[in-house]
Structure formats: structure tokens, C-alpha cells
Amino acid sequence: MDLQAILSGIDVKADWVGLRYVKENTGFRLVRDGKPEANTRESKQGIMVEVLVNGQFAYYGTSRLDAVGIQAAADRAVVLAKAASKYSLHSFGTEARPVAKGSYRSAFQTAAEAFSPGELSELLIKASTELKVSDKVVSTNAMARIVESESHFVSSNGSDFDQQFLMVSADYSAVAQDGSITQKRTDGGLLAKSYQTGMEVFNEQDVLARCRIIGAEAVELLSAEDCPTGTMDLVLAPDQMMLQIHESVGHALEIDRILGDERNYAGWSFVRMDDFGKLQYGSKLMNITFDPTLENQFASYAYDDGGLKAEKEFLIKDGLLIRGLGGLESQLRSGLDGVANFRASSWNRAPIDRMANLNLEPGDSSYADIISSVERGVFMTSNRSWSIDDYRNKFQFGCEYGKLIENGKLTKTVKNPNYRAISNPFWRSLKMLGNQDTFEVYGTPFCGKGEPNQVIRVGHASPLCLFDKVEIFGGA
Amino acid sequence: MEKLFKQITQDIMTRLKPGEHLGLSFGGEHTTFARINAAKIRQIGNVDEADLGFNYIWKAKCCTSSISLSGNIDEDLQRAQTELDRLRTEARQLPDDPYLVIPDSTETSLNEKFGTLPEADEIADKILPAMGQADLTGIWASGRIYQGSANSAGGYHWFASDSFSLDYSLITPAEKMVKATYGGTHWDQAKYETFLADSIEKLKLMSLAPRKIEPGDYRTYIASAGVSDILSMFSWGGVSEAAIRQSESSLGKMRNEGATLSRLFTLSEDFSSGLSPRFNGNGEVAPEVNTLISKGELVQTLVSSRTAKEYGIESNFATGGEGLRAAVMSAGELKEADVLKALGTGVYLSNLHYLNWSDMIGGRITGMTRYACFWVEDGQIIAPIENMRFDDSIYNILGDQLEAVTETALVNPDVGTYDGRELSATICPGILLKSFSLTL
User: Fold this and answer.
1) Contact assessment for residue B372 and residue B200, using Cβ atoms and an 8 Å cutoff
2) B132–chain A Cβ distance below 8 A for any pair
3) B12: closest CA among B83, B100, B64?
4) Strand, coil or helix: what is A1?
């Protein structure tokens, strides 16, 4: 499709016109108990026509891709923009859509086509079988999700960039049961192993070894004690820190939330405009970066969907809040510094402020240093439950697997570990931060936000973390 | 759109070869969205999209897919034919699927509900002036939604519906909020303005100084919108037969251990309102009413044909995910006017937020209070409360602690738009609890 030619042919009275074409194929394979449960592929393509008239942007997303359909979409968008411009929340200029030129390709070793549907199914069947380490494992799942996505953006002020992504997510899980006790283990949380990568992640030896551990831990949990209740030290593995960063830092720092756009849906934020540069968000150990430049992390890219170049930025430095998660529109509305995070889930949604890769930078404590420093506490790994309030304050999270820490040593395994706290005090209680050796990278395809609703991919990386005096409890 | 779906169906079905079976599904919408913040337009636009779903079976192998349609019949026929060929190639490489279901429904239906909606370029003028100086944030969505289903056995269904909704929050300067949704099929400017004025009036109650309450167990009333949130959890690790069989359901205790809920609690899937189509992706038509929990007893679950085949039981033609499409909780006897008096002293919750299982197998849910929630003393509203986290079991909320159910069940439309505009709604009353656990 010659997007530049189509753009040149559009005849509308607008201050700016942009075309964003997206084509995305999502393949999903699921094997349950050794048998195929789903072999599906979703192929979506369409174009978002966006115009600026009288300071108001309006869009028309259409799956009709010929020049006639796109001209009609542009005409209707102009009519909408004019009608809405009497009531604009903010009058924008073309500076909200900078000129961007270039391209981006995900880094990978093995292309998606290298594995046939049959070969991948065979591996997942083996994985599902390997997870059943004993008769107590009553159900197993092995799943793979492969996304090939391409986008191309052109605009009347000269932007022309295209981006191609290959994204692979996989998960292996086992449900174990003994009488009325049921426990489940996954591979670090549902599809937490989501990366921009290739099919090299489906190394059979590695996959099967992980499956044996997952199955064994599900069975181990059946005879474990319930997590104790009390206020004590909490050590969180990086796969749970992913969720912790996402919910209690990422969403809270989205500038569109702070500006109130999400008050009817996802919510507001305890962070206020005048907190930037002043609020001590966490302890001095806390350094949060927005980094869409990391190779292989799930939400890396070169430009956001408004054309802003993606660069690494510190949002929180030595615990101090310095920058928000806001694209150019939010930056123009708020006057705050932001990042290139104006992102849309597909061609049929307008971009809004989203997380991309949001990471907690590593510190200098080793795994052994952290565990040995704890007199009484709980180590938790792999998220299984999450809930937080609309201001991103009061949260309660649960994990699949826990270990008691007593007198500096990991002792008994505990089941149903949960904790609850309030965001700022919790982050200020961060008292030890793992070093690079403890640093792990994760991602999720499932971050929901926006009206109309959008699900988008995000990446999070973190070292092992120790928090002081947290309210911890067990199951029902 | 129906013409497009019919033409594609006729073309593709004739291309099937011996041993092949096919289900086709259609989903589409023409929608105008207007995102509002502070009673101004934040973002506005239209979305036209249509997708064609395939459920392809060859011998004992099965694969599914969906493709975008352009609306141009020649282009779309080509896309559909190419996809059929791709599915043929893929299926032959897959292992046998012992639980695949060959579509065999020969039923047909046509259900189109046309409304009167504002034109896209009229929407801002129609909805914004009435907001006046109110701080209103929300989403307008209007237009037509399409769903279709066809299969190689001859089954064919088509459903189209016009609707609009304005889902919004009104906010006081002290950041207390009231939530409401004005929706329907026929726009009436006067009714809209009256509805909105009523919401703005309700907001005045929120201007009282808020009260902070301590964690603990409280007598609690949860209004219909909050109950709707709790019932939504039954679609995830709840009434699915597969989830129960695979030990991933909160209702496993009811099936396996004889646990019960309150006799005041009856839950059905009930399509009689006509808000949602009864046919699923395979073109199978669910019973109009399917009682799942009757007076606290689990009497039935949602069973897809795939689950039915795996476990040797009867299907009730649920969707593949076995979630609720038309949840209806039976009303009780508590008069709306008596709610505060019956509550006495405790907490009145209009809405809940961000629910999740804190222990799915144990049936425990955590979440937040949100919007118009009050501290009540001796039947009088005293003050709005600051939002609280709760963590309690459905076996308490809808079981031992359920004291009364209101006599009116309200329609709570699903205004979700993740995979396109939703068609479903939850119809449910409010509930009065002897005790509800607020934890943070």
C-alpha cells in the first residue's frame, strides 16, 4: 500500500492530516492436558485517519483501505473536528505531531515461520505432558502467543516512519489438587514471559526443564502451610515487581490520568501536577526509568504513535519524582516534561498516554545479602491477584508461591501469600535493592485503559527487592 | 452489512470439500466515540470495522481465525478465500482434536433493532451544553453493532442493533464523584437533560464533609451497580463448567463440597430482555432462560458444546469461554424506600471498583469502594466515606451475610469497548449485608 500516494490524494480543508496503517497477525496456540485446545490466528488491518481543524483533532478509523474509503474517512473526520471544536478541552497546533522519519525492527534470531504449526503444537504437547509430574497435577496448560505487527505513519507535515515488531509470549502452568486444596503455578505469572524476540525462546530442553519445576512447585504448594499473617519484611521477586511497578508507579504517573481524562474509568492519581520535582515517591534506592530502547523488552519502539522519538528517561531519581508518563499532547496540556508514550492499541483507537518499558534500575545488594538481612519475612513470586484503587493508592496483591524467611534463611514454602499497602509509604519502605545479577525482564500483553477501551503491551524489569514492615496474610 | 456477510457465506460454503466443516461469524460496528473531560471534548472520532471469524474443521483437526473485512465485496471475497486456503494448510499440520465440535445447528434467525440516534456531527451540540458548569468526565458511544453466524450445516443468524450511551462521572471540587449511564436506542433530548440534571442534583449529597472509617466488619448495602460488578466475577472462574471440572472455579466448593449460598440468591442467564443475541459463535441458540443458582443451590452451569463433548454431558450452548452473556439476579422483597432504614447504621456503597479474586478457589474477592458511598447512622446518610478496600468471600456476601435483596432489579449495561462495543447487560437488585469486611 502506497500510503504517501494516498495521503497526497486526500483533499480536505484541515490544518494537518495523518494516516496510520496497522496490520497485525496474532497467533495463539494452547494445549491442555496434552490435547489441542486452541489453534487460532487473528489478522487485523485498518487505517486511522486523523485531522486537525480549528485546534481540535478528530479521527476516523476504517478497515476500508482504498483511496475512496480513506478520502471519505478524512471528510467525515473534518466534519467531526469542526463540530467538536466549539467544545475543545485544549486547542492543539501541529506541534503536537512532530515530524518523524525512520524505521524500527524488532531484534530476533529465529523468524516466526521457522516453526511450523505442527512443530509448535508438538512442543506444547510435550510441555503439557512434562508439567504433569504426579497424579496430583489435575490440569496442565502450555501456550504460545506470537504477534507480527507492522505500522506505517505518514502526515501532511512530512512524517514517514514504519515499525515492524515480532513479539513472543509463552506460559506453562499446572494445577495440582489434593482433596479440597488446589494450587496453581505458572511460569512467572500468566504470560509474564513476553518479549520482542523470535522463536528461539522455544528451545525444547529449556522449556521442558522449566515445566518440570512448575509442576513440582504446584504439588509442593499442596502440603505447604498458609502464608502467615502479620506485619513483616517482604522480599519480592522480579516477576512480582513487574506488577508492583506497573500498578503503583506506572499508572500513577500517567499525565492524562493526572489531568483527569481517566476519571470515569481507570481513575485519577494520587500524584498531582505540582508533585513533579518535589514528591519523594520512594526511598533513595528507587530509580525508575522509561526505556523503550531496550532490545528484546516487550514494548520497545523508535517512535510513539504521535511521532515523538522514543528515548530513555528517568521518571524517579533517588526516590524523587521528576518526570511523568505523558506524550506530547499531555505535555502541551500540562506544561510538564514527559516521554514518547502516546500509543494506540491498534488502527481503530486514538493514541493516549501508556506505559511502554518501565523499569526499576538495579542496586548493589546480592541475593544472599538481601535474604540474610531478614530476621522474619516472606519471599513472594509470580503474581496471581491484583487490585488497586482509582487513585493508585490502596493496593492488594497476591502471589502463587512464597517462602518464609527466618533468621536470614529461606525456610518453609507457604501457599496463598498476599500483601496490601499504600503506594507511597510502601515505596518509601524499600530498604534493599538487588544488583544486576538479580535483575530480570518481563512483560505483559494485557494492560487495559482508556475510553474507548484499549489493551496494550508493556514491559517491566526489576531486581529483587526488600520492603520493610508490610501487612502480609494468607488465603481464605 | 448483512448483505456482505450473506454473500461471503454463500461463496465460501460452496468452496468446501468433502470432510470439511465450517462455521463463520461476523462482528462489526459503526461507532462514534466522544471522550469528555471537564465537560469538554478531549477526543472524538468514528470507527468502522468488521471482522469475519472462521471455525474450520477437517476430519479430526480444527483451527480458528478472524480477518478484517474492508466492506468491498470483491476484496472481502478474495480475503475470505485466501484465509480458507490458509486454514486448510494449517489444519493438516495439527494434531487431532478429540473435543472438536462440528457445527450442526440448522436454526436461523434475523433480529434487527433500529433506533433513532443523533448524527455524529450533532453529538457535541446535543450532549455538552446541558452539562453546564459541571465537572463531567466520560465517554459517548453511538451507532450500530452487527453480529452474525453461519455454518456449513445451514444455520444462519443475524443480529443488528442501534444504541447510544453516555457513561459518565460527575466530580465535586473535593473530588467526590457520582457515576451514571444514560443509554438507549431512541434519542430524546428532554429525557437526557432531565436524567443529567438528576445526576447533578445527586452530586450535591457528595458535598458533605467526607468521613474516614476504620477497617472492620460493617453492615453494608451494595446498590445494583456494585452487585453487577460482583456478578461479573462469576464469568471468570465461576459458572463455567470447564472451570469447575479443571479445578479453577470459585464455585467448585458448591459442586464438590456441598457449599451453598443464601436462599435469597438466584442467578440466571436470561435473554428475554433481548439486549444480547442468544446465538453463540457456532450458531447454537441458548435457552431463553437458564437458571444457574436457585435459592443458593448450584443447579446448573454454563456448558459449551466442546465442554459437553469432553465430559460427556449436555451442552446448553454457552460461548466457548462459558461466561455470562445475560446475567439476571432475581429481585427480593426489600423496598427501595426502606433501604436506609433497613441498613440502620453502616455503609452504603453505590459502586465497586477493580475486583479480583484474592483466593479464587476459596471464593474470596478483593476490590475497592468507589463513587457515591456513604456512612449511614440510624437510617440517615451522614457523610460520604473515603474509598475503602474490601476483601470478603462470595460465600459471605451472597451467602451467610446476605440479609435482604431489593425488590427492583436494574439494568446495568456493559459499556465496555475492548473488543468492540459490548451488547450485554447485567440485571440485578441491590443487596443488604449483615457484615462486609473492609480491610484498608
Assistant:
1) no
2) no
3) B83
4) coil
Angle between helices B73-91 and B2-14 (to 10 degrees): 40
Domain boundaries along the sequence of chain A: 3-223, 226-473
Q: Which three cell numbers stand for residue B123?
A: 453529538
Q: Answer for the pair A346, A150: CB distance below 8 angstroms, yes or no.
A: no
Amino acid sitting at position B401: Q
Beta-bridge partner residues of B411:
B427
Query: Domain coordinates of chain B in residue numbers?
Result: 2-207, 216-438
How far is the first Cα of chain B from the last one, in angstroms, to the nearest whole number? 51
Under-50 pLDDT residues of chain A: none
Q: Which of B358, B400, B437 to mutate to test the interface with A (most CBs of A within 10 A)?
A: B358
| A261 close to B168: Cβ distance less than 8 angstroms | no
Q: Could you tell me if B98 lies within 8 Å of chain A, comparing CB atoms?
A: yes
Q: Is the dihedral of CA B134, B137, B142, B148 positive or negative?
A: negative
A44: helix, strand or coil: strand
Question: How far apart (Å, rounded) are the C-alpha atoms in residues A299 and A307?
Answer: 16
Return residues 424-463 of A near B (CB < 8 Å): 448, 451-455
The CA distance from B313 to the nearest CA of chain A, in Å, is 18
Task: Quote the mean pLDDT of chain A.
Answer: 97
Does the pTM of the predicted model rise above 0.90?
Answer: yes
Q: What is the pLDDT of residue A476?
A: 64
Q: If DSSP codes are grouped into helix, strand and coil, which group holds residue A157?
A: coil
Residues of chain A contacting B367 with CB distance shorter than 8 Å: 387
Nearest beta carbon to residue B362 from set A83, A352, A476: A476
Report which DSSP code applies to B77. H
| CA separation, residue B28 to residues A108, A155, B45, B161 (Å) | 35, 28, 16, 11
| Residues of chain B below pLDDT 70 | none
Q: Give me the interface pTM, i.e. the ipTM.
A: 0.96
**DSSP assignment letter at A362:** P
The strand pair at A101-105 and B135-151 is best described as: unpaired
Dist CA A61 CA B30 (whole Å): 10
| CATH architecture of residue range(s) B2-207 | 2-Layer Sandwich (3.30)
Reported as a single tens digit per residue, the pLDDT across A461-473 is 999 999 999 999 9
Largest distance between two CA atoms of chain A: 74
Percentage of chain A lying above the pLDDT 70 cut: 100
Distance CA B440, CA B437 (A): 10
Q: How many CA atoms lie within 13 A of B198 on its CB side?
A: 9
- For residue B251, report the phi and psi dihedrals to the nearest 5 degrees: -95, 5
Q: How many Å apart are CA A112 and CA B225, to the nearest integer?
A: 45
Please choose, from the candidates A114, A162, A174, A167, the residue with its C-alpha nearest in 3D space to the C-alpha of residue A145: A167
Q: Does residue A434 contact residue A465 with C-beta atoms inside 8 Å? A: yes
> Is B139:A451 a contact under the CB 8 Å cutoff?
yes
How would DSSP label each residue in A289-341? EE-TT-TT-TT--SB-TT-PBP--EEEEETTEE---B--HHHHHHH-----S-
Separation CA B245–CA B318 (nearest Å): 16
Of B121, B139, B247, the CB nearest to A139: B247
Distance, in Å, from the CA atom of B110 to the CA atom of B367, rounded to the nearest integer, reads 40
Residues B389/A420, Cβ–Cβ less than 8 Å = yes
CATH level 2 (architecture), domain A3-223: 2-Layer Sandwich (3.30)
Give B237's DSSP letter.
T
Instruction: Report the alpha-carbon distance of residue A242 to residue A192 in Å, rounded.
Output: 9
